[in-house]
Amino acid sequence: MIQQMQHLCNECKGSGETISDKDRCPQCKGDKVVPEKKVLEVVVEKGMQNGQKITFPGEADEAPDTATGDIIFVLQQKEHPKFKRKGDDLFHKHTLTLTESLCGFQFVLAHLDNRQLLIKSNPGEVVKPGSFKTINDEGMPMYQWPFMKGKLYIHFSVEFPNSLSPEQCKALEVVLPPKPVSQYTDMELDECEETMPYDVNIEEEMRRRQQQHQEAYDEDDDVPSGGQRVQCAQQ
């Protein structure tokens, strides 16, 4: 049996040429490249987006007879505890009490540049849960247009009390719009079956039901092929 193998030349390292020891450069030792430390100044301009690239052409590692590549920095945006960025706009979540949502609110928002913004509602305005308000020119600077800014959106949620006393309910009924008139008579209501709803975490409830359905599906798969299912007798 004759076996032919190829391996890299120990003398030329695959370059196809050799340099005698007396002719070798004392710095590169014949490798034609020398290590060098270089400081690159990365300038992040105002308004740059997450994932945007900053390129330094021809600053990658060099090698003989090859084109030198580029060094590319990719920006990664750090999450902020109070603001969320979408393009040139900023989003902020703020929770109001029920009294603030009905009777007006006022609060101070510390911006990213440490400015204090006084934000308040208009007299007589009611803020509904899930509503948005916007402030122009308080978002992020626009890239290559640093004097122009996006918008600041405020997403409101309302914190409701857990319970009310009978006296509080009567006081609220006086100032709030009246309840809708019932379309059923007392006799019809007496014939209805009374039920009591309870609080539920809908996300947890849906996960539990999905898990139950998956377990039932797995049990059906465990039935041997060709096997007969047992059906309950009808009475």
UniProtKB/TrEMBL annotation:
The keyword Chaperone applies. It holds the Pfam family DnaJ_C. One of its GO terms (molecular function) is Hsp70 protein binding. Keywords: Chaperone, Lipoprotein, Metal-binding, Methylation, Prenylation, Repeat, Zinc, Zinc-finger. Residues 206-235 are annotated as: Disordered. CDD domains: DnaJ_C. The keyword Lipoprotein applies. InterPro entries: DnaJ_C (IPR002939), DNJA1/2-like (IPR044713), HSP40/DnaJ_pept-bd (IPR008971), HSP_DnaJ_Cys-rich_dom_sf (IPR036410). GO terms for cellular component: cytoplasm; cytosol. This is Chaperone DnaJ C-terminal domain-containing protein. Gene3D superfamilies: Heat shock protein DnaJ, cysteine-rich domain, Urease metallochaperone UreE, N-terminal domain. Plays a continuous role in plant development probably in the structural organization of compartments. GO terms for biological process: protein refolding. Signal peptide: none annotated. It comes from the Eukaryota. It comes from Zea mays. Residues 34-161 form the Chaperone DnaJ C-terminal domain.
